[in-house]
Amino acid sequence: MFPGQGAQYQGMGVDFEETSGEGKALFNLASAIMGTDMGDLLRNGSAETLKRTDLSQPAITLANLAAAAYLGERGVKPAGCAGFSLGEYAALAIAQVISIEDCFKLVKARGEAMQAAIDRIRAGADASGMAAILGLPSEQTEQLIAAWRNEGLTGLYAANLNAPCQVVAAGTAKALKEAAERFKKAGARRVIPLAVAGPFHSPLMAEAQERFAPALEKTAFHDPHIPFYANVSGARVSSGAEAKALALRHIVEPVRWTDEESAIAAQSGVTAALETGPGAVLRGLWKESGARIPCFAAGKKAEIDMIDTAAG
């Protein structure tokens, strides 16, 4: 399972560039496509620099794929793959739905399209963002948002269905402010504004979807070689055509991670999950899902070596 935007930190993935032949090749390829030294960016880029959507998306994807490459060098072959939000592109590459080169080209185009949309939103009068709603069942949160929209509270959307009682909403600043009070009255334990660049996975990102569409359209998508699960459907994808259609919808539709986790846990023969990339968010969400299958950290060389040692 590959993490998405927000998991980045200075120095992520560089241990694979320094110790893995495939990792080094990935850094070289990403640097050529991005037109910048990705190793230098990851070693020396500030936290603010790495937050930029046009830079963080290729950087996180590189760290994800480098971790997967090292797992492969250690003889670990995935039984299936999925990614949270941006992480889905690394999953598409590992499932051989798209090539590694096309993966980097797509996340470059996607990051630039989303950054342009975010810059326009920030320059306008209608600010927007995201907030986490904790303590309400995800189904209830979605139902409340739909009901309030019918009552006239527009500009509010369920963006990430992260856990049974954790949903991230995207919306205009006005809608989020009003909804926060409503969620609390409905029984939410907390409503936490998030320090994110924009209202991701909502119709408010329609401009980015439109900008990204030409790059996606000219990219070849193939049928998955191993089970691949998608955010938009929360289910296993059967064909390259389906994956491509979902990739376009992905920018403006919610991440149904809880459904995806259930589908992964139900796959026959799966005995463990690996968070293959930076951070620990997916392990936390996996634990909240109640899945009995263990989930291990696999974002650093030392973590992967530890898994390998534990496995005997």
Descriptive notes:
The chain is of the alpha+beta class. It has 2 domains: 14-121 and 203-310, Malonyl-Coenzyme A Acyl Carrier Protein, domain 2 (3-Layer(aba) Sandwich), CATH 3.40.366; 126-194, Malonyl-CoA ACP transacylase, ACP-binding (Alpha-Beta Plaits, 2-Layer Sandwich). Helices cover 52% and strands 11% of the residues. It has 14 helices and 6 strands. It has a 4-stranded antiparallel sheet with strand order 2-3-1-4. Strands 5-6 form a two-stranded parallel ribbon. Helix 5 (53-73) runs antiparallel to helix 7 and helix 7 runs antiparallel to helix 10 (206-217). The longest helix has 24 residues, at 100-123. The protein is globular. The model has no long low-confidence stretch (mean pLDDT 94).
CATH class of the largest domain: Alpha Beta
CATH superfamily of the largest domain: Malonyl-Coenzyme A Acyl Carrier Protein, domain 2
Order of helices and strands: HHHHHHHEHEEHEHHHEHEH
Number of helices: 14
- Helical residues, percent: 40-55%
Backbone structural class: alpha+beta
The major beta sheet can be summarized as: 4 strands, antiparallel
